[in-house]
Each structure stands twice: as structure tokens, then as C-alpha cells.
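As agreed, record minuted below.
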Amino acid sequence: MVRLKNRYLLVNILYPEIDDAQSKSIVPDLIAINQPTTNALTQHTLLKHLRLQISELFGDYGSGAVSDNLQVKYLSNATSTFILRVSRAQYQLVWAALSMMNNVPTKDGKKCVYRVVKVSGTVRKVEEEAIRRAKEMIVKARRELGEQSESTLDSIFDKGDKQNEGSSTRDVMVVDGGDSEDEMDIYNDDG
């Protein structure tokens, strides 16, 4: 039996054109370029637009080559990231079509760039890379912001620490069922 071999493409949607409102604010360029995508973008509309782009670039050959197995496996509008599954023989064709797409496939879609970040034979490796890149993006954004703003979680945790400062703390002794009576007497004599 022959196994179908696929490639998984991790793709980021980048917005290099910064609006006037965003340029005046204190939002770092890293966050402005990697901004969330509108919720109007769905897996279906993305796939439809990609197939249309492949048809324009490669004609009937391209449409027929990717028609059976082109699929959007994951789409996150918050991180502007998606994962495509395509056959191993045609992944470069899909990559070329992604490179030529220049806007979000929604009504009045923004200008954007589709950047293929990773190509892998397993979806697990692509998911791990997506998670790694998201964590890295958070660290870079915090570094760029510096001390200009506090994150919500930091302010929550700081409040929790301030509340616990006034409360008294007691040492708690953990007793295991296997401890002998002699050991317990030693602890009771010391404390």
C-alpha cells in the first residue's frame, strides 16, 4: 500500500504598511507588522482565494495538481498564522502562489505579505514551531515595549504579592505515614 506524502506549511500573515493612527501610537513596529487578522477571514475564504491565485498563476495544471489535497489545517486570526497541508510534489507551487498574494481575502482586505516560515513532513513539527515563534514574539514585544507599559498578568501578580505581605506565615511540617514516632519527637522538641 502506498502512503500519501504531504507537506505542511506554516505561514504568517504580515502587514508591512502601518496606518497613520498606528504610527503615532507607542505600538512597536514588531507588533504593528504582526497584528491580528480580521475575524472575517475563515479557513474557507482563505482556501478559496489561494485556489484562485493558483489558477491565475498556473492555469488548469495548477488547479488540477492541488485540487485534491490542499487543505487549511489550522487558522489563528489572533496570531495571523495558518497551517496548510499539500502533497509533497506540489508544495512549491502553493508556496509560489502564497508569495504572489498581496491582500487578505476579505471585503476591503488590507495589504499584506504571506511568509512561509516552515515546511515539514509532519504537522506536529509545524505546530511546535508555531508555538515557539509565538512565545518568541511575546518576548521580543515585551523587550521593545520595555518599561513603557505593564502587562496585565504582571499587575495581577504584583497585587497578589502586596496582599500577602501583611499576612503572617507559619512553617508547616509535612508528616509522612512512614515516619516513626521517634522522628516526630525530635521535630517536636526542636520546634
The chain has a mean pLDDT of 79.
